[in-house]
Every structure is written in C-alpha cells, then in structure tokens.
Design goal:
N-utilizing Substance Protein B Homolog, Chain A; about 70% helix; about 150 residues; mainly alpha; about 0% strand
Length: about 150
C-alpha cells in the first residue's frame, strides 16, 4: 500500500479509536484490545501508524486538549461535536509525534477525514493551523518516541 494511502487509512482508524475512547469513556488499553479484535485484516503498516498516533493522542491528551482549547474561539472542548474534537486530537497528536510530516499534509488530511466522517463539518481549519503553529514553537522540533 502506498505511504499516503496507508497513513490516510491509519488516520481514519485513529479517529474511530479516539471516538470510541471519548464516547465510551474507555481506557486506551481497552480501546486497543476491543478495536483491533474486530479488525483482524488491517494491514500491519496501517495498524502500526494508527497505534502510534493513538498512543501519542492518549498519552498526551491533557496537553493536546489544552493546545486545542487555547486556539478555539467560543468553543469549549465539551461543546464541540465528538467527531470534530477527535479529528483535532488526532491531528495535534500527529504534529507532536511526527514533527517532520509537513503541517499542510496533516491539516489537509484532518480536514478530509472530518469531511468524510462528520455530518456537520463546521470546525474551522484555522484552529488546526493555529494549533500547528503553537505545537511547533513549543516542541522545538523534537520527535517523541513512538515505540511501545
């Protein structure tokens, strides 16, 4: 599978995992266990990237939510649509965990994922852009460990 197709599919799976954790109030461990038990035919590379992004999003959830909250105007995290909130979480997790990935790619993919997954895609792309700028200023370009 091509790299872009692999990552696109992984990002969609991460959204589903984050949604499951958020709506079901489930631990990351339970999400991984139940999520992958139902998806035994997922390509290993797709699963690996999805697991890495989900791990970053889960491990750094407080930091990610703070960054998103800092750059959203008139919207608290708990008032956002669940899909939008978790698309943003996945994108910011990718900014943090994969700083070498071009910001424009992450933002475009997040917007595309949201548009495919949301009945009401209203969260502004400027939120992703502002979050990306802040993350890159505060992370000093450090790539955080992704292994289990």
């Amino acid at each position: 599978m091509a790299k872009m197709g692999t990552r696109r599919k992984s990002r969609e799976l991460v959204l589903q995992m984050l949604f499951q954790a958020d709506m079901g109030k489930q631990t990351p461990e339970l999400v991984r266990k139940t999520f992958w038990a139902e998806r035994t035919n997922v390509d290993e590379e797709v699963r690996g990237f999805a697991d890495d992004l989900f791990r970053v999003a889960s491990d750094r959830l407080v930091e990610i939510d703070r960054l998103i909250g800092k750059h959203t105007q008139h919207w608290r995290m708990d008032r956002m649509a669940t899909v939008d909130r978790n698309v943003l979480r996945g994108a910011v997790a990718e900014f943090l965990g994969y700083p070498a990935t071009p910001r424009a790619v992450v933002i475009n993919e997040a917007l595309a994922t949201r548009n495919r997954s949301s009945a009401n895609p209203r969260t502004s792309s400027s939120t992703l852009v502002r979050s990306a700028q802040n993350v890159f200023r505060t992370s000093s370009g450090v790539c955080f460990p992704m292994s289990a």
